[in-house]
Write a structure and sequence with these properties.
The structure holds two protein chains of two kinds.
Chain A lengths: L8 E5 L4 E6 L8 E7 L6 E6 L4 E2 L4 E4 L5 E6 L8 E8 L17 E6 L1
Chain B lengths: L4 E3 L2 E4 L5 E6 L6 E7 L6 E7 L2 E4 L8 E4 L6 E5 L8 E8 L8 E2 L3 E5 L1
Parallel strand pairs in B: 2-11
Antiparallel strand pairs in B: 1-3, 3-8, 4-5, 4-9, 5-6, 7-8, 9-10, 9-11
């Protein structure tokens, strides 16, 4: 699976949009971009995923560039409860083999939302 | 709906002692995962089960780690004997159907080896 690069940490003011970037320049055509987050002392939580088109759900929006080499997770109105580590993961879709469906976490971005 | 349940939440043992972690996945989820998370790092997959079968255990240190998932529901991860470097959080996750579906994680077991 392609590797990802994320900033180590980011800050955001409460109520403002948080834009978390992710670089995945070696992504291949059949690989999806997934985002998970991990609040302190909890297990990771799924946020959103996408292939080519932009995606939106009740938690966030995912913007993927046309060349698919980078993406941005947007939390439109960040709250204090959004303080967490955010993981951008590229995940393959090739059936078979031990890497099938495997989530490979990096170190993620520590997002701190300030009052 | 209950989430993934793990126990114990915390465990402190001395090195060379055995330890076991238990996981109860979300009802109906046939795929179960064990992850290891060191401080400041992202989780790393140790083993993945499809029902009772371990389909990916390539990252499991088999000299001291073992896992089982009898009847394709609950799972136990064991370390024997534990070493100082095993201090970490052990996370269990489950998903329904294809392993490409969303994974739901439990809160983890924090292991401290003294």
């Amino acid at each position: 699976d392609a590797k990802t690069t994320q900033p180590t940490s980011m800050d955001c003011a409460e109520g403002r949009a948080a834009n978390l970037p992710c670089n995945h320049s070696t992504i291949s055509g059949n690989e999806y971009v997934y985002w998970y987050r991990q609040i302190h002392s909890q297990g990771p939580q799924y946020i959103i995923h996408g292939l080519k088109n932009n995606e939106t759900n009740e938690m966030a929006s995912l913007i993927i560039t046309e060349d698919r080499k980078s993406s941005t997770l947007i939390l439109p109105h960040a709250t204090l409860r959004d303080t967490a580590v955010y993981y951008c993961i590229v995940r393959g879709t090739n059936a078979g083999g031990t890497s099938y469906g495997k989530l490979t976490f990096g170190q993620g971005t520590i997002l701190t939302v300030h009052p | 709906e209950a989430g993934v349940v793990q126990s114990p939440r915390y465990k402190i043992i001395e090195k060379k002692q055995p330890v076991a972690f238990w996981c109860n996945p979300i009802s109906g989820h046939n795929t179960l995962y064990w992850y290891l998370q060191n401080l400041g790092q992202g989780p790393e997959l140790l083993i993945r089960y499809e029902n009772e079968e371990a389909v990916d255990d390539s990252q499991l240190p088999k000299d001291r780690f073992s896992a089982e998932r009898l009847k394709g529901v609950d799972s136990t991860l064991k370390i024997q004997p534990a070493e100082l470097g095993d201090s970490a959080v052990y996370l269990c996750a489950s998903s329904f159907g294809s392993s490409y579906n969303e994974q739901f994680f439990g809160p983890g077991t924090r292991l401290t080896v003294l």
